[in-house]
Amino acid sequence: MATAVPRSMRYAALLISLLFLAVVVPLFEGTGFDTAVTDLVSIAILVSGVWAASHRARDVAILAMLAILMTTRWLPFSGQRGIALLSGIAGALFFVYVAGIILADLMAARRVTIDTIGGAACGYLMIGLAFGSLYFVIELLHPGAFNLAESARSSFRAMNAGYLHLAYYSIVTLTTVGYGDINAKIPIAENLSAIEAMIGQFYIAVLVARLVSIQILQRGE
Prior knowledge:
Blueprint: H1 7-27, H2 34-52, H3 57-70, H4 81-108, H5 114-141, H6 150-154, H7 160-174, H8 187-219
Helix pairs in contact: 1-2, 1-5, 2-3, 3-4, 4-5, 5-7, 5-8
């Protein structure tokens, strides 16, 4: 009988792929290999995301379908706006679905372990990528919704550089750092950014409070 893979390993695979997206991918920008590297890391995130949230066959099927829709941006005709929108919407749904499953596991946890800590980090970053996908969709529907650099705006046909800039904006918004180098310029983008900032604060406050309370109960056992 096969031994089930620990959740900590699944979360570790997802965190490593996300780390590659943040650290390794930018190193290849402008080298000619940036698109290939971004695509490979994106595939790793999709596979590890499905793996981390694969509790039931239904979850795997839904996530696999969303992942396939996301990869439409690699098709020869991916420069079409409709294909880009489909990929962006599928990405938002994919990351929200993974985050939801991970957070459900965290809220059901009765002990603080490496699984819960890894899951907390994965869930947080999944929320950031989900909002990044939503910002990407908004920028496609309303060009100029964000004050992106012209070089980033011109790369939307390839979908890589533009999305990475908005994923970066999403993370700094989620953490309420807000460097100000990228700003929302229209009401829907501004309001969504404010909602993300609030979610980021509530996530930290509620989740940390829960983990601390569980840890206190563990020490009293």
